[in-house]
Every structure is written in C-alpha cells, then in structure tokens.
Design a protein that fits this description.
alpha+beta, 3 helices, two-stranded antiparallel ribbon
Amino acid sequence: MRGGHKPGTVYKITPNELKDYKTENLSLHDVQILDVIKQANLIGFYPEVTIIGIEPYEISYSLELSNKISKEFKRIVNSTRDLINEIILG
C-alpha cells in the first residue's frame, strides 16, 4: 500500500479512505479489496471493513522482503497486532 510515508509504515484505513492511495499497487495477487467488497455488496452482504496495509520499500516479483522491511519486521508485526487488538477489543 503506497501512501507516501516511510517504508514499514502501518496503515489502518476504511474502504472510503482507500481512494487516496495509489490503487495500482495495492495487490500483487490481482485481487483488489474494493472489488471484493463490491462483490459482497452485490449478494446483500455489507461488512464493516478495516484495511491494514504496510508501506513497501519496493514492489517487485519476489518472495523475499526487502532489507529495509526485514529490519523493521518485528516492529511491523507488533504494530499490526496492536491495531488488530484495537479493532477486536474496541
């Protein structure tokens, strides 16, 4: 998720806020989260969605993390865990 911040920045946003991000790079899996939400809406399901994303250093075809992200990995995991707990526990 490219938001223009330092690589490793953890984002917590809603689908409505997603339009402010560069959508062409949201997924290497060719599945855009907004498309998934629209499909759910078409079958009458309107989930409350929170998107957690991480600012990459680079987006490339690789299974490895970049060195910059690898160095920040523990902090990223802890920040992400804290956000998930905040969502779940309120």
